[in-house]
Amino acid sequence: MRIDILSAVPQLFESFLNYSIVQRAKKKGLVQIFIHDIHDYGKGKYKQIDDYQYGGGAGMVLMVEPLDQLISQLKSERNYDDIIFMTPDAPVLKQPVVNELSLHNNLMILAGHYKGVDQRLRNLHITREISIGDYVLSGGELPAAVLTDAVIRLLPGAMSDETSALTDSFQNDLLAPPVYTRPPEYKGMKVPDVLLSGNHQKIADWREEQAEKITRKIRPDLLD
Ligand code: ADE
Fold it and tell me: Ligand 1 within 6 A of 87 CB?
């Protein structure tokens, strides 16, 4: 898979790309990630990429031309399965969309900034818009990193234990059950007996029961 990320603050991705599962997936050749600085296509001596919004109002808007040029250049080099704009005024990201995106070959992700991006750019190139939650961040870089992480960990070989992704919260509309590791007792708190029983069927039943109980308590909306 190839992921191209377009950003006005490319430095924000440095640490994220060089640690953990993302780094492992890159090293294994499962994913190539390219970060593009929108300023490279900025206008004039000062490489301008944003301007005041028509009609007045606070906040700068990313201009259509620099982004159109950058995106058109990338599109001329390969076909993209999706060109995604991270923005709070979009459907909220859910696991099924992550699953779908993980099957693609080429993804482009635009991290917005300032007040947003000229609507004409959205009409011209964006095929999917995604919010990571009902709150507003100062830029789309963290949302782009969130989406990238969620997708990459599903690529076959990215995680050391392949079955792990399938037992995540949300993969079956349930939150994940509690997990324990050694020691078996800590400050008087014991690991549930069933987990030490070695009985796989009983353990699976217990986990399912716990997942349902927790989901009912914390996220009853998922059970509807
Ligand atoms: N940019 C700013 N806030 C955002 C959010 N919640 N989701 C996606 N992109 C954003």
Answer: yes
